[in-house]
């Protein structure tokens, strides 16, 4: 398993801190493996996760993995965390201090479809879960990760295990680091858990839940039956045939949400639950709200070679 494999060379997994002033890597030492930070070796382990799965896409030639380093620096570069194995237990090591051991660290992976618009639940039954790296809060003061014990998954935040579920994935801290959200599965339903409070159940949830800039609002895209919808603060908006990547985006003030939806073969922007004009296609990457608090995009209508530049502002602006 590449995500949890031993390094095949004395030097592997080289990772730089965000500012580039610290460097960490994995090195072999008498049959053990150590993480070396700025030239100082940490404790020995039987195994170290040098890579972590960021996303898995089902393409024409099978599963395609997108990887990230298993050695995780906090945003300020002052802290380092990684996943290691001692004996038959996996654990998270933070700043050289090992945490408690579990059967697995990470989560069962979920595979997106080729168009990246929905998840393939059939891919979550793999016997060996792929790992997601531990997650630091933006200010580096909190750390969270998913762990497994007795076949049940839960999130460990600052060393404290939370409620148990069949699966958990895509952990996200609010910008101020005060709130933590993730998606969880119980039986056949997925839901978002925010600060240990579970939301409504859906057939699928796309990607990670997204906090607004001030950390008070939370949005995500979910599937119910054959329809997709955006949920803001656990209030569902109208359902459509599809919600397009990247899903919902907040405005800079955190008070407005926009996304691109598809229904009846047409594409349109939705701002605060209100759909805009429909087009055959919307061109370019959707980047959300601009400096003036509105979204702008190019739309294309059928049998019309012209492109329409559209400015869509929230009601009242």
Describe the protein.
With 317 residues, the protein is an all-beta fold. 0% of the residues lie in helices and 50% in strands. It contains no helices and 34 strands. It has strands at residues 12-16, 23-29, 32-37, 40-41, 47-48, 51-59, 62-69, 72-73, 80-86, 89-94, 97-98, 104-105, 111-112, 119-120, 135-136, 143-149, 152-157, 160-161, 167-173, 180-186, 189-194, 197-198, 204-211, 218-224, 227-232, 235-236, 242-243, 249-250, 257-263, 266-271, 274-275, 281-283, 295-300, 307-312. Strands 5, 8, 9, 10 and 11 form a five-stranded antiparallel beta sheet that branches. Strand 2 and strand 3 (32-37) form a beta hairpin. The protein is elongated and about 70 Å long. It starts with 11 loop residues before the first strand and ends in a 5-residue tail after the last strand.
Annotate the secondary structure layout.
Elements: E1 12-16, E2 23-29, E3 32-37, E4 40-41, E5 47-48, E6 51-59, E7 62-69, E8 72-73, E9 80-86, E10 89-94, E11 97-98, E12 104-105, E13 111-112, E14 119-120, E15 135-136, E16 143-149, E17 152-157, E18 160-161, E19 167-173, E20 180-186, E21 189-194, E22 197-198, E23 204-211, E24 218-224, E25 227-232, E26 235-236, E27 242-243, E28 249-250, E29 257-263, E30 266-271, E31 274-275, E32 281-283, E33 295-300, E34 307-312
Parallel strand pairs: 6-13
Antiparallel strand pairs: 1-2, 2-3, 3-4, 5-9, 6-7, 8-9, 9-10, 10-11, 12-16, 13-14, 15-16, 16-17, 17-18, 19-20, 20-21, 21-22, 23-24, 24-25, 25-26, 27-29, 28-29, 29-30, 30-31, 32-33, 33-34
């Amino acid at each position: 398993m590449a995500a949890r494999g031993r390094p095949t060379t004395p030097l592997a997994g080289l990772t730089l801190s965000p500012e580039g002033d610290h460097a960490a890597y994995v090195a072999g030492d008498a049959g053990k493996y150590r993480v070396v930070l700025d030239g100082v070796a940490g404790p020995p382990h039987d195994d170290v996760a040098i890579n972590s799965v960021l996303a898995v896409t089902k393409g024409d030639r099978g599963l395609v993995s997108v990887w990230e380093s298993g050695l995780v620096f906090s945003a300020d570069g002052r802290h380092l965390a990684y996943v290691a194995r001692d004996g038959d237990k996996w654990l998270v090591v933070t700043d050289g201090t090992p945490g408690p051991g579990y059967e697995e660290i990470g989560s069962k992976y979920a595979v997106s479809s080729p168009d990246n618009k929905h998840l393939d639940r059939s891919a979550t039954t793999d016997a060996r879960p792929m790992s997601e790296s531990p997650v630091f809060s933006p200010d580096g003061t909190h750390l969270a990760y998913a762990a497994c014990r007795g076949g049940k998954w839960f999130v460990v935040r600052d060393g404290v295990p939370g409620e148990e579920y069949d699966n958990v994935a895509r952990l996200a801290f609010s910008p101020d680091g005060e709130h933590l959200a993730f998606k969880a599965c119980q039986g056949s339903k997925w839901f978002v858990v925010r600060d240990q409070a579970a939301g409504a159940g859906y057939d699928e949830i796309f990607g990670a839940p997204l906090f607004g800039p001030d950390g008070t609002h939370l949005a995500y895209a979910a599937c119910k039956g054959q329809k997709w919808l955006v949920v803001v603060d656990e209030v569902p908006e109208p359902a459509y045939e599809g919600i397009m990547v990247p899903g919902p985006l907040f405005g800079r003030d955190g008070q407005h949400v926009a996304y691109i939806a598809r229904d009846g073969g047409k594409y349109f922007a939705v701002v605060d639950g209100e759909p805009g004009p429909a087009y055959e296609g919307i061109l370019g990457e959707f980047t959300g709200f601009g400096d003036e608090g509105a979204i702008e995009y190019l739309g294309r209508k059928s049998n019309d070679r012209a492109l329409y530049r559209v400015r869509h502002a929230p009601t009242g602006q």
